[in-house]
Design a protein that fits this description.
Order of helices and strands: HEEHHH
Number of helices: 4
Radius of gyration: 21 Å
Distance between the termini: 49 Å
Strand content: 5-15%
Largest sheet: 2 strands, antiparallel
Shape: elongated
Structural class: alpha+beta
Amino acid sequence: ALVEKPGGLVLGQLICGLRPAERRLVDRIVDDGFALTPASVRCLDDLDGLDTACTTYVWREEFFDALDEEKDWDVEEFTETFLSEFVELCADMRKSQEAETLSDEDLKELALSRKRREQRQDEHGECAG
């Protein structure tokens, strides 16, 4: 987890140009243990350049006791252990966010089409077995 440390160094990616809906989606996916915080970053290929103002998610101080201070976050371990579940969470959150923007009529039609598709799959499965 990223913790605030003046003068600290964090390797990561600066993502620019998110639309408001995309930013809200990221906010929904990020764990409640993090807080969105203003930050400034400098690109590694231009260390003498200017800082870029941005925001980042920093681990909340009240949850520090949940961190293992002896161990840094490991992208390889995350990929191996948690990535597939995280990708499913992201897909589910995106579908949920998209459904929230639908009108009641469109939402009803989506539910009915999903039900019809499931019925066709059930019928096809019964014939094949």
